[in-house]
Structure formats: C-alpha cells, structure tokens
Amino acid sequence: MRHSFPRFSAVFRQGCTGAAAAVTLVAAFASAPAFALDTAKIVIGANPGGGWDQAGRALGAAMVSAGVAKSVSYDNRGGAGGTIGLTQFVNTDKGNPNALMVTGAVMVGAIEANKSPVTLKNATPVARLLSDALVITVPASSPIKSMQQLVAQLKANPGSVSWGGGSKGGIDHVLAGLLAKEVGVDPRKINYVPFQGGGEASASILGGHVTAGIAGVSEFLPFIRSGKMRALAVTAKDRVADIPTLREQNINVELYNWRGVYGAPGINAAQRQALTEAVVKATESPSWKSALTKNDWTPFLLTGDEFGKFVDAESARLGAILRELGVAK
Questions:
Q1: What is the pLDDT of residues 104-142, one digit of tens each?
Q2: Is residue 32 part of a domain?
Q3: Domain membership flag for residue 110
Q4: What DSSP string describes 238-259?
Q5: Which residues are 73's β-sheet partners?
Q6: Number of domain units in the chain
Q7: Is residue 2 one of the residues assigned to a domain?
Q8: CB atoms closer than 10 angstroms to residue 113
Q9: Which domain holds residue 302?
C-alpha cells in the first residue's frame, strides 16, 4: 500500500550525511506508524451464507489481490442484526488499526429497533462499498405465481403471509412493512420471521416454512437461477437479472440495501487514513469488480466523515420508518 514519509525527505533535503543521517533516519522510522497489513481482520455481524458474509469475504479477497494485505482472517458473529458482533468488535478490537467490521442498512435498522447501547458512533467510519437491490421470492413449489397473487393473499389475511428475512428491524423487515402500507394493509399486522443469516433464511424459504422470502438479489440469485426459488419482484428502479420491479407491477416502492466497513474505535487519524486507502485500493482491483458483476452489486463508494454523515442520516430515516411499523419506539 502507499506510504507517505515526509520526515524522510526532510532528512535528505537538509543534507545530512554519514552517522548523523543514519541516526536521524532510524529515528524517523521508529516514530513512523506501522501500516503494513500483514493480516487484516474482517468481522462479519452475521452467520455465513448471507450478503454481509459475501461482501466481507469479497473485500478480503480484493485486499489480498490488490496487495494491501498479505492475508485476511474472518470472524462471523451473528445475532440481533449485527449488534452483537458490533458490541464485541468495539470492546475487543479497540485500537486495532488492521480490523474492519462489515455494516449496512440492516445493522443501522437493528440498532434503532433494539435500542442498542453500542452504536456505529462507537466505531470509526471507513467506507461505504456497494448497494444491492432486494428481491421477493417464493419457493418453486409455492402455489403463488406472481406478485399480484401474493398481494391478494396479504390483503385478505395479513397474518397468513409469513415473510422470511434478515434480523428484526433490518432492511428486509422495512420492505415488508412498506409493501404492506403501499397496498393498504396495516404494517403492524405483518407476520415477519427474522433469521440471523442468509443461509438460515434460504433454508427456511426452500423448505416452505415461510410464505415468501426477502433478501438482497445476490443472496437468492443462485437459487433463482437454479429454479429452486421463484422471483416475484425486485425493489430497484430497473430490472435486475430480468426480474420485474415492484413499480412496473403498480406497487410504488423502491428500496436498496447498502454495505460498508467501519474501523475499530481508538485508532488515530493516520491509521484511519491508511485503512481507508487500503479499502479504496481494494475496490479498484479486478477481484472486487468481478464480485460486483457476479452479485449484481452497484458500486456505492463513500469514505471517511462523509460516510459517517450518511450513516447518521440513514439512522434517522430508518428509525422513523421502524417507529411507524411499530418495531422501534
């Protein structure tokens, strides 16, 4: 990764030679912060198999590919929309300049819904990475063949439609509530079944244990392409993987998930800058660009304090929606 050592150039501009120069140079190296990421650590606040896991591991592979980390370790800590993992990250990795935690709209919503005492303000914003449209699916064996049929059942008996998705208060939960509201159903009556990871949600949907599933397109796309799930709609402005949008089916809802990474609390400004540069360089690599294409992710890069301001705005926006849904107080 790129380093900037202004003190070193000052030594030679001053014309130091011999032993004096050597002593000065050694002192400069001793006082310079060590930013080489021999091993980067990526904490993922969800169980394996979901969108956070995909994003975290894709970023780690890109960091190695881009040469900004020699190796990467992954730590999956699922539960409560990532807030359990966030709490552990804040307490365990304080001051660690090589640690990152994957976050996103799900965690922001879960913090609001669960009134978590530890929030993203306790960590260090590094970079927003990508956005991901959501998809609504049913198992291939379901008698529901279209979004219209799903909406008809929801209107007739809201409780009969069970929605399987990510954690309570997350973006999947928000979508179920917004969709109900849009079609004239009290969002407080939705039957939402939260799961701690995309793998668990997928298994429940494939097994027919819930009526419909909600997740990022990238999470369900393999099952859609294999014919195991039937995609009814995406939440994007335009079709994704040729799946019809909600709006083209006369349901005026458009919603996106996003994912990014935070650094540990207690790192200094130079360490934060180095970590940010490493992540940005990773996003410029062919490895990361390939992951974007493979998963139908849209690049959504924003770094540093501007990313922190974006998260603050998201907290206010999602908190208001969740209070309307009766999920947050």
A1: 999 999 999 888 999 999 999 999 999 999 999 999 999
A2: no
A3: yes
A4: S-BTTBPBSGGGT-----EEEE
A5: 41
A6: 2
A7: no
A8: 26
A9: 39-131+258-324
**Position 324 confidence tier, pLDDT thresholds 50, 70, 90:** confident
Over the range 210-223, which residues count as b (16 or more CB within 10 Å of their CB) and which as e? bbbbbbbbbbbbeb
Residue 119 lies in a domain: yes
How many Å is the maximal CA-CA distance in the chain?
87
Rounded Cα distance between 172 and 174, Å, is 5
**pLDDT confidence tier of residue 326, bands split at 50, 70 and 90:** confident
Which segments within 177-279 are labelled E, that is strand?
191-194, 212-216, 229-234, 256-263
Mean pLDDT of all residues in 215-238: 95
**CA dihedral for 226, 231, 234, 239, sign (positive or negative):** positive
Residues 127 and 265 in one domain: yes
Q: What is the average pLDDT score of the chain?
A: 88
Which pLDDT value is given to residue 79? 87
User: Which tokens sit at 236?
Assistant: 């994007």
pLDDT of residue 107: 94
Tokens 């998260």 -> residue: 311
Domain end, chosen from 191, 225, 249, is at 249
Joined together, the tokens standing for residue 269 give: 């400004």
d(CA 21, CA 18): 6
Q: What is the CATH number of the domain that holds 185?
A: 3.40.190.10
Helix 51-65 and helix 217-225: axis angle, to 10°?
100
